[in-house]
Specification:
globular, homodimer, alpha/beta
């Protein structure tokens, strides 16, 4: 493992790697930052509950001391709510998330928009309304709301926003510096027009996340694959995202119960070892 | 239960109900036909392996003697294959399926197009090629190939055709009497443009299948819901399919391990009891 890590250290290929905390879910924020340092990873994607567990100040100090950038904060969203008071509470929580992004020094807040409350049409309208309300608040603070279209199998319980086309239709109603989109290979790979919509997205791409689809899928939520372990042509997405002009970090975000059982350093080493081929397509 | 069934017997609402065999998977073809007779259901959707288990002649005699129509035969497809010989074998099997549809007196062969073999792009091309090859053969025999776009969570292992738009893009390359599409609520409900594409489909609609999405989803394959038990606005699909001009049977097709444990007569009674509201939207 150390050999594999060393081979990527300082390489231009490795510069854009970002470790989303959910790939090494057992690590606290500070443990994950330390892990990134050991492996030479320069970016991290943080989660609000993990940040809260150590405190925002501690988290910020840890990334600053390590010289690591925060590529995104997960997650705002879950907008559909029953009744005005509940909806307002969701908006308030999202304003807090925007403030937390500022405090952590990242300009990307990932939105998992929320599943169905009541009916699908109303839920989708609530998402649109919430983003309209929050976009200026985010923009004034230098944070971009990044709408993440999620796999349609999560439409009922996690995100009524399910395609990149739909996310862009929403995002384009707002200034580009206020609202962008997340391109996540796990959520989008099946869509015949995914790459066309990535091209359309252009400067709307606020975050690019990589994750593979295992076949058969071991579990709806915790059965995702490390890049290279599944059926997705991730390198084709990377090419498309590059061609669309995105030059930011590439987050590896893999919810997988088996991966979580492994030592975090081993997981990070595997990610770096497979990165040039699985994510960047260097074998072509 | 008998009261509920009686309330639908002879009702115009019940005339279009079709029992897809997979809803009462433990019943043989002849048992399912008998069950339809007891409940006053006039249509059945058959599966090739169940037909093979009793023999085509027996199956045909059973439906004819009962005066029941065969709304569709499931399933042709699974076109992606490694190499020419394997692909030709798939075509041969599909020609057999077309012949079986003729022998059973149905004009609809449902296509579950198949998952990824090799890579996604090649697999999708093989599906297009296979349909192009088979369409005239089907048309000459009075059978329509009905492309079923399936939920994207099955893209890797069951169907690289995942949206109604994609299915129609394929179907429209062929005469309408040769190639149509299946509108199945379970597979399409999440798609923001589902109802728009149903309107586009018009006379291409060869089959309309209803099934609900349970939240949370108990199982990827065997966790589907009876109409009314989940989050899908099935009645909105029924309205859209009606407006598109489809006047044929409506198949209830529900893969659910718990439903399969129940007596078939009870399941059919439940379907008929909930049909007017859950499928036809009579409460509006």
């Amino acid at each position: 493992m150390p050999t594999q890590v060393t081979s990527m250290l300082g390489s231009p290929d490795a510069e854009r790697v970002s470790l989303n905390q959910r790939t090494t879910a057992r690590w606290s924020v500070t443990e994950a930052v330390d892990g990134c340092c050991r492996a030479g990873v320069r970016w991290i994607g943080l989660w609000r509950e993990d940040v809260a567990a150590v405190g925002i100040e501690t988290a910020r100090r840890a990334v600053d001391a390590a010289g690591i950038g925060v590529s995104s904060l997960c997650r705002g969203g879950f907008f559909p709510a029953a009744g005005t008071a509940a909806f307002e509470a969701r908006l308030a929580d999202n304003r807090s998330a925007i403030d937390e992004a500022v405090a952590l020094g990242t300009d990307v807040l990932v939105l998992v928009c929320g599943g169905i409350v009541g009916d699908l049409t109303t839920s989708r309208q609530q998402v649109a309304d919430a983003i309209g309300t929050l976009a200026p608040y985010a923009g004034e603070r230098g944070v971009r709301l990044a709408i993440e279209p999620m796999h349609p199998m999560y439409c009922a319980d996690r995100s009524v926003i399910v395609t990149l086309r739909q996310a862009l239709d929403l995002a384009e109603q707002h200034p580009v510096e206020q609202v962008g989109v997340v391109v996540d290979t796990f959520h989008l790979w099946w869509d015949p027009e995914a790459l066309t919509q990535v091209a359309r997205a252009g400067a709307r791409i606020a975050s690019y996340q990589v994750c593979d689809w295992l076949d058969p899928l071991p579990d709806l939520l915790l059965g995702r694959g490390l890049p290279g372990d599944g059926v997705i042509d991730i390198a084709a997405f990377t090419d498309a995202v590059d061609a669309a002009g995105y030059r930011g970090p590439i987050e590896v975000e893999v919810f997988n119960a088996d991966v979580w059982e492994r030592p975090g350093d081993d997981v990070v080493a595997d990610v770096l070892a497979t990165w040039p081929v699985a994510v960047l397509g260097r074998d072509r």
